[in-house]
Amino acid sequence: MAQEQQRLSPVERANLVAYLDGELNEAESRAIATKLSLSPTARREVEALEQTWELLEQLPRVKAPENFTEKTLTEVRQFAEAGGRLENAFLTNLSRVLQASAWVGASALAFGLGYVLTQWVWPNPTARLARDLSVAEHLDEYHDVGDFEFLKELAGSPQFGAERDD
Hints:
The chain contains eight helices and no strands.
């Protein structure tokens, strides 16, 4: 790109106000001055910025109220005091969260302990049925028998083998 077509770089554009106010160091100031002397495009950017500043000067200036400084300092003090309250609120909420976590943990531990105790200590009816499976398979027949008198008669009958004397 030709020297006369060069635009200001973003860094130079950011430093342009400081250049116009004379706040840049000598090396940066010389670099921008050289670019402005060689490039009409860069000069147009500076002119546009100067026109913008002139237009801003035409706007009415707002005056701060007389108690502006006092109000600002009061708000800063209140904010500084609120910092301590904010910290206290954070610590209070953290304490509540930790307490809730402790209760949840204790509840989970109690539930787990209860579950383990019911599995190991409490009798399991299913295990008993498995142990007495032969009785369970013939339960209907045992109900049909009724009582022990019928069984004694069967035991004494000749069809079942022998007569016994009691």
